Amino acid sequence: MQVVKPGKILINNEWCESQSGKRFDVINPATELKLTDVAEGDAADIARAVKAARQAFESGPWKTMSARERGRILNRVALLLDKHKEEIAELETLNNGKPIHETRNADLPLSIETFEYYGGLADKIHGDTIPVNGNFFNYTLREPAGVVGQIIPWNFPLLMAAWKLGPALATGCTVVLKPAEQTPLTALRLGEILLEAGLPAGVVNIVPGFGPTAGAALVTHPEVDKIAFTGSTEVGKTVMQLASSHLKRVSLELGGKAPNIVFADSDIDAAVNGAMRGIFFNQGEVCCAGSRLFLEERIHDEFLSKLKTRVEKMVVGNPLDPQTQMGAQVSEEQFRKILGYVEKGKKEGAKVVTGGSPAQATGYFVKPTILEGVNNEMTVAREEIFGPVVCAIPFKNHDHLVHQANDTVYGLSAGIWTRDIGKAHRLAKEIKAGTIWVNCYNCFDAASPFGGFKQSGFGRELGKYALELYTQVKSVWVSLD
Ligand code: ADP
After folding, report:
1. DSSP for 26-56, written as a single string
2. Would you say residue 248 lies in a domain?
3. Which residue from 146, 218, 225, 271 puts its CA 20 to 30 A from 365's CA?
4. CB contact at 8 A, 327 and 106
5. Domain of residue 96, residue span
6. What pTM does this model have?
7. Alpha-carbon distance 147 to 125, whole Å?
């Protein structure tokens, strides 16, 4: 296993300590032991980082570099990530607790393809010519948004950095990135790769630190033009309020409480697989997790019995073991929060079909959990648990289902399992969510947009849609007289 080195702050392509000299511990959630420590950035470090990003945006090689050359740098980042993917997958697993099988097969390949995708897109970003009235030539320019503050969560630490940096760099923005305090390590490793790939000084600055100090300082800094945030809906609301002080542009990717809907006419075995993938992938620490499992009444019992059999065979434990299917929750706080929700569910009348308790004496492992007898009004069906707990909710018919599926403050994603293609497409229109998976779940591609309806946020990441977040349009009028 690799030696995990202490982390620093990246400003202007130099690794430095925080001005306060403070550091914070990074824990391995599978062992509860300290992995390393990292420099703790706060407002003073954010100010230095923003200054570097502003300078890099206004002058120097980044501003004058061709879009194609920016694309080449992004492609080099992809190649370097690929070269070091084993080491980085292990680092992610050590820090986050997720199974190595997932970091190898999801986090790393998806991060690599995100840099490849935006490497390819960089020189294809352009405005339009517009046939206006009168004797004028009118055209639009798509210019970078400027200095961007990016705040990311701990559930997919490298991948969220890739989703944020890829489009921001393709469009010519400069960035101050704040990783989550629980999981700063792969973002810092990515910083080393950005330097190796030849990114000019100040273009990406990485400041590890805590939300209310480093995060809030980034959101309120007057020289930051745009904030891109992924995290909880609660903190998203704070971020939006703070950003209003300078009317910064904001995009938010927040929580979810996705309906995963199984009809009696579906391929039941495939749907059982989909229900598992929907909730147990990444220990359920996924904003689009299929946490409300809607089952058509007449298959409810059969489905739950099949699901229970499968769930009880899941391999939970050492995240570094390639056979492991579910690892540790990211922190003690999350571990306790999840178990607290199970207790609350029981008090409100839900029954534990399986799981509902810690899986090991040491480490923040929670058994994969199924709750039945849940109705859509219970706390466990309304609030985001962000853990491996699925709530089974029976439904009678189409109208009953659509009402319940949409009866949530969230709207990030939904799953639909049926062999009736017409029904699937009708429902895909009726469900208020940013992503609909039909006979599949948790599918991602750098080319396909992702983002929320309602309190799951606004703005779309990935694909060409993300360019909207990081560019602004200028209309130029030229008199032809
Ligand atoms: P979770 O509740 O899932 O831990 P959070 O929404 O708290 O997720 O955290 C997501 C990111 O937001 C992290 O990088 C965290 O440090 C940051 N953050 C937390 N509070 C604030 C805040 N007040 N201002 C800016 N960023 C914050």
Report:
1. EEETTTTEEEEEEE-B-HHHHHHHHHHHHHH
2. yes
3. 271
4. no
5. 9-254+455-477
6. 0.98
7. 18
Domain containing residue 51: CATH number: 3.40.605.10
Task: Please say if the pLDDT value at position 60 is more than 90.
Answer: no
pLDDT tens across 176-194, in order? 999 999 999 999 999 999 9
Residue 270 inside a domain? The answer is: yes
Closest CA to 226 of 411, 45, 40, 468: 468
pLDDT tops 90 at residue 218: yes
CA of 352 to the centre of ligand 1 (A): 31
Same domain for 215 and 273, yes or no, is no
The SS3 of residue 340 is helix
| Residue 304 CA, distance from chain mean position | 29
Ligand 1 pocket residue status of 231, Cβ below 6 Å? yes
Strand (E) or helix (H) holding 81: helix 67-83
Instruction: Tell me if 70 sits within 8 A of 198, measured CB to CB.
Output: no
Token code pair at residue 342 = 């199970």
Is residue 71 within 8 A of residue 122, CB to CB? The reply is yes
Contacts for 317-320: CB closer than 8 Å, 24+ residues apart: 317/359, 317/360, 317/365, 318/30, 319/30, 319/93, 319/94, 319/97, 319/98, 319/99, 319/100, 320/1, 320/30, 320/90, 320/93, 320/94, 320/100
266 and 148 inside one domain: no
Q: What is the mean pLDDT of residues 437-447?
A: 98
Tokens of 95: 């820090």
Instruction: Identify which of 433, 466, 163, 413 has the alpha carbon closest to the alpha carbon of residue 287.
Output: 413
249 in any annotated domain: yes
What phi and psi, each to the nearest 5 degrees, are found at residue 351? -115, 135
Distance 151 CA to ligand 1 centre (A): 8
CA distance 181 to 331: 11
Beta bridge mates, 140: 475
167 within a domain of the structure (yes/no)? yes
Instruction: Please tell me if the CB atom of residue 147 comes closer than 6 angstroms to any atom of ligand 1.
Output: no
Ligand 1 pocket member 178 (CB < 6 A): yes
**Structure tokens belonging to residue 20:** 């306060």
Residue 193 confidence (pLDDT): 98
Tell me the backbone φ, ψ of residue 435, rounded to 5 degrees: -135, 135
Based on its alpha-carbon atoms, the radius of gyration of the chain, rounded to whole angstroms, reads 23
The residues carrying an active-site annotation are 253, 287
